[in-house]
Each structure stands twice: as C-alpha cells, then as structure tokens.
Amino acid sequence: MSDDRQNKAFPVSWDQFHRDARALAWRLAGAGPFEGIVCITRGGLVPAAIVARELGLRMIETVCIASYHDYTKQGEMQVLKPIADVVTAVAGAGGKGLLVIDDLVDTGKTARLVRDMLPSAHFATVYAKPLGRPLIDTFITEVSQDTWIYFPWDMGLSFQPPIRDGVA
Q1: Cα–Cα distance measured from residue 137 to residue 133, given in angstroms and rounded to the nearest whole number
Q2: Is 154 noted as a catalytic residue in this protein?
Q3: Is the pLDDT of residue 139 over 50?
Q4: pLDDT > 90: what percent of the chain?
Q5: Which of these ranges, 49-58, 137-146, 151-160, has the smallest mean pLDDT?
Q6: Are 113 and 79 a contacting pair, CB within 8 Å?
Q7: Which one of the listed residues 15, 20, 106, 165 is annotated catalytic?
Q8: Which residue from 102, 108, 113, 142 could staple onto 44, CB 3.0 to 4.6 Å apart?
Q9: Known binder of ligand: residue 148?
Q10: Contact 139, 105 (CB under 8 A)
Q11: Which CDD domains match (predicted)?
C-alpha cells in the first residue's frame, strides 16, 4: 500500500474469512489429489488450517517469508525458513502434488519466489489482486490493486465511519 495514493479498505470478518477459505477448499477438492500443503507464513496459516481440515490433509509445512516489514510497504523478500527436504521428497518433481496456500497474492513477489522453489505445485489464495493473479492457479475473490484487505487477525473491534462520510 503506497502512502501517496488513496486506497480502498476491504475489512474481512472471521466469519467471512472462514466462509471464503471453505469455498477455496471446495474448489480445490477437484484439483487434487494433494500430498500435502505448504503454507506461506504468516498469512497462509489460517487458510491452510481450514483447507487441510476440509481436504483431510495431514502433512502441513511452512515456508517463512518476510515481505511486509511495517504492514504498509512491501520491502525486500527474505526467506526466514525454507521448505523442509522431507516435504519436497514426498512430492513429485518440482513439488507436484503439493498445494501452496496463502491468504492473498498482491504484487506476486512472494508467489514468484515460492514458485521458483516449487514450480509444479498448485498455488491457491483466498484473495487475489491483478498483478499477482497470473501466478495463482485457484483463488476465491479478486480485488482491485489499490484495495487494502484488513484481515481479522490484524483487527480489533472499532467504530467504522459510514462510506458517505468519505472513508473507503
């Protein structure tokens, strides 16, 4: 999110996120079979848990990447923890049979980095923005590039002014 332009707010409640993550699992049910999930942390943790439950997957791995260092600006990509060799060994060549899950694809930088690690894996996100959309195989909702999604784990209960008062 850039400080020099107006961004649209898209707050997502826990209920809505759960429904959207289950809808993602529903779509993915026909795209498998999958041997396991690799979730991109931290955003992929919640949808990965929901998808794993719905699809009956027990092997769940994380790839830990830091890209948003202050919640508003995407910075240099940093792999904090790579994918364990035992997980890639179970999967086919290039990650075939693995499902990569994240909450959102924005610019596609994170997805591109993980796609380089697992070029044959199936990539899925709950939400997608146009710049990152070509890197994802399955998603539920597309939002405009200038939309900032407020996920429930980042929010507390607070008053929201009406749209008519100029707040998007």
Answers
A1: 8
A2: no
A3: yes
A4: 73
A5: 151-160
A6: yes
A7: 106
A8: 102
A9: yes
A10: yes
A11: PRTases_typeI (cd06223)
> Is 102 labeled as catalytic in the residue annotation?
yes
Task: Quick: pLDDT tens for 94-135.
Answer: 999 999 999 999 999 999 999 999 999 999 999 999 999 999
H-assigned helices in the chain: 14-29, 45-55, 85-90, 109-117
| Closest among 149, 77, 63, 137 to 106, alpha carbons compared | 149
- How does residue 6 score in pLDDT terms, banded at 50, 70 and 90? low
Structural element, H or E, at residue 87: helix 85-90
* Domains of the chain from N-terminus onward: 11-149 (3.40.50.2020)
> Tokens for 91?
């999967």
The answer to whether 63 is a known ligand-binding residue is no
132 annotated as a binding-site residue: no
Q: Which residues pair with 81 in a beta bridge?
A: 64
Query: Is residue 42 annotated as involved in ligand binding?
Result: yes
Cβ–Cβ under 8 Å, residues 95 and 116: no
- Name the active-site residue from 102, 116, 137, 154: 102
| Alpha carbon distance 104, 82 (integer Å) | 19
